[in-house]
Amino acid sequence: MARPTLIAIGNYNDWDVEPMQAEYTLHPVASVEALAHLPEDVCADARALAFKGHAPFGGKQMDLLPNLGLIANYGVGFDAIDVAAADARGIKVTNTPDVLNDDVADLAVAMWIAQARRIPEASDWVRSGTWSEGRDFPLNRKASGRRVGILGLGRIGREIADRLAAFKTEVHYASRSEKDTPGWTYHPDYVSLARAVDDLFIAVVGGPDTAGCVTAEVLDALGPDGVLVNISRGSVVDEGALLDALERGRIRGAALDVFQDEPKIDPRFLRLDNALLQPHQGSGTGETRRAMGQLQRDNVAAFFADRPLLTPVN
Ligand code: DGY
């Protein structure tokens, strides 16, 4: 029997490509735009798509693949995919939740501490010989004991809160789904959450429902001693308002793993010494990326075998 056709969009590691090649007639394309250059017969044969990346994938792209039945996303966040357009075409969407919770939460806490204790600058201080010349590194500020807010108490938000609780923090949160977590204080909106805490962690899902919801008003409520940590999506924050707040010292700092137009970064960020910048690497460990690839492939295999999908989104 002929092997099913699978189109894979995005940059995959060899450890993902090899098992896909073993099972399917694989057509890898580097980007969403490159899909338009695939031969018509390949597009017609493709019932499944392995999707990786953050470029928008909407109805126009889906229509290039007339027999598409599954978009298996590599990542927990599926905001790049227009799920309503997929629904309208009877296309199933899956994602890769849970396997990355620990890594993303670890990075969020690491960024928070690194920003407070200025770890990257301190490392440069040593490397540049400044310390050896006899100059002490300037004092920074404590992380433990702060009041912290989690915006979005989903799977990753909860892992972040659990870790922060071990740092003798007072945990506050705002969440659509969870209002009653013993020991942690619920807030009905983002402004009252930001007002109640020292530092604010963004862990909501991306997409139209949360776009721009961290406004200038939220940042002002956080105040001049506050730090914003974002491991969710750049779209959640009004980036212009954040840059203004950082430049004018209306908040103390930010630790950011995600940006609005990433991997392009607004050059204003690069001039700020109160912003710690990361290349969207929350899930970026070998262990987790392998697990994400495996879950993506397991969903594709379930689809072709007519079994229930493991982690359906719609
Ligand atoms: C995710 O899984 O959504 C991560 O942000 C990687 O895109």
Automatic annotation (TrEMBL):
A GO term, aspect molecular function: hydroxypyruvate reductase [NAD(P)H] activity
SUPFAM superfamilies given in the database record: Formate/glycerate dehydrogenase catalytic domain-like (SSF52283), NAD(P)-binding Rossmann-fold domains (SSF51735)
CDD domains linked to this entry: HPPR
GO CC aspect terms: cytosol
Keywords: NAD, NADP, Oxidoreductase
Xref: Pfam families: 2-Hacid_dh, 2-Hacid_dh_C
Domain D-isomer specific 2-hydroxyacid dehydrogenase catalytic intervals: 42-314
Record-linked InterPro entries: D-isomer_2-hydroxyacid_DH (IPR050223), D-isomer_2_OHA_DH_cat_dom (IPR006139), D-isomer_DH_NAD-bd (IPR006140), NAD(P)-bd_dom_sf (IPR036291)
Boundaries of every D-isomer specific 2-hydroxyacid dehydrogenase NAD-binding domain copy: 109-282
Family classification: Belongs to the D-isomer specific 2-hydroxyacid dehydrogenase family.
Protein name stated in the entry: Lactate dehydrogenase
Organism (species): Tranquillimonas alkanivorans
Organism ancestry: Bacteria, Pseudomonadati, Pseudomonadota, Alphaproteobacteria, Rhodobacterales
